[in-house]
Amino acid sequence: MNLLDLTPKEAQSTIAGWIADRGEPPYRTRQILPRLWRRPATTWSGATDLPQDLRVALDREFPLPRPALERLQQSADGTVKFLWQLDRDTAIESVLIPEGRRRTVCISSQAGCAYGCVFCATGLMGFQRQLSPWEITAQVRELVIADQFETPSHVVFMGMGEPLHNWAAVDTALTILNDPRGLGIGARRITVSTVGIVPNLERLARRPEQFKVALSLHSPSGAGRSRLMPVERKYPLELVLETLRSFSKRITFEYVMIAGENDADDDAIELARIARSLGALVNLLPLHPGGVPGFEPTPLPRIRQFATRLRSLGAHATIRQSRGLDIAGACGQLRIEVTASGNVATENHTGVEQ
Ligand code: SAH
Ligand code: SF4
């Protein structure tokens, strides 16, 4: 059985039941549980605070799965990209972004993505498979191990995949990340970024914790959005915005700026209206190379002008710094190809199909 796929509460009762069956004292559960996430053990035999026979039994009963670190790349700006091999055919990436005292880890929720936004490298890969809760949270757990139990301060679901297209696993992963018996990261420091899968957006809204929600908007109109994001046909913008109105959580809009596509003055006017009505913060960021060729980023001076326009119209707007561009670790650049032999080929940085 894989304890790392359970919520901390479920893991606790599973361990307690097993401990009782073995006739061990109940306090063993309190010793074992923190070794799952708070002070993660790599193997039970390494958890030397437990008696030897118990460690052997734990290794047999509850082996601790780990992803293999295939590659680590460091950007000139301090960003680090990790390539994790999950099984023979599946690899994913995560990115660690240090910013002063903040350490944000950007994690993947799926291998590939089914939504095919035209500007996104992960979208180009197509969908490979869902990640399980342990595979999602391992991207944080492994950093805690590497950093001698120092937990990253923030987590964003902005790596590969659409988190709300893998709700069951992401639901459990959110609990593991947030629960004090799990990784213990505050809900306000965990951001779920989504294109707006309405039924699961509602499920996320019903969770009592104050997780942050980032809606990938990219155009203030359904027509503009449908040119960039095929999801518009299934969950139209109007419906997504209607759903967000029932949210009590803080919302941000992600807005990738693409020259001539979504950076006109009229876009700013409509975007400001929507952002004001939802009290949302608009995050502007330039298009990064990686998706379909033929799209160009909006030049920075124009992005600044656009932000000023939004602010003059009463909307909150910030320009997001691109991080890890030189290692193709910035938003929308994560891409892995699996060769016919099942080996993982490193991603293509040029954005041109090979
Ligand atoms: N599937 C989710 C989360 C992963 S993508 C989503 O789309 O929200 C994380 C963010 O990267 C999204 O806001 C996405 O629109 C953005 N992104 C994708 N491709 C990009 C690119 N080429 N340049 C800049 N941002 C990009
Ligand atoms: Fe999928 Fe998000 Fe990329 Fe769109 S931007 S293809 S939803 S990962």
Spell out the key features of this protein.
single chain, 354 residues, alpha/beta, DNA polymerase, domain 1, TIM Barrel, ten-stranded mixed sheet, two-stranded antiparallel sheet, disordered C terminus, binds S-adenosyl-L-homocysteine, binds iron/sulfur cluster
Chain-wise SSE layout:
Elements: H1 8-21, H2 27-32, H3 52-61, E1 68-74, E2 80-87, E3 90-99, E4 102-106, E5 110-112, H4 121-125, E6 127-130, H5 133-146, E7 154-157, H6 167-178, E8 190-194, H7 198-206, E9 212-216, H8 222-228, H9 231-234, H10 237-245, E10 251-257, H11 265-278, E11 281-286, H12 300-312, E12 316-319, E13 337-338, E14 344-345
Parallel strand pairs: 4-7, 7-8, 8-9, 9-10, 10-11, 11-12
Antiparallel strand pairs: 1-2, 2-3, 3-4, 5-6, 13-14
The structure holds S-adenosyl-L-homocysteine (SAH) and iron/sulfur cluster.
Describe the overall structure.
The structure is a single chain. The two termini are 41 Å apart. The longest helix is centred in the N-terminal third of the chain and has 14 residues, at 8-21. The chain folds into two domains: 3-61, Orthogonal Bundle (DNA polymerase, domain 1); 68-341, Aldolase class I (TIM Barrel, Alpha-Beta Barrel), CATH 3.20.20. β7, α6 (167-178) and β8 (190-194) form a beta-alpha-beta unit. It is elongated and about 70 Å long. It contains twelve helices and 14 strands. The chain has helices spanning 8-21, 27-32, 52-61, 121-125, 133-146, 167-178, 198-206, 222-228, 231-234, 237-245, 265-278, 300-312; strands at 68-74, 80-87, 90-99, 102-106, 110-112, 127-130, 154-157, 190-194, 212-216, 251-257, 281-286, 316-319, 337-338, 344-345. The structure holds S-adenosyl-L-homocysteine and iron/sulfur cluster.
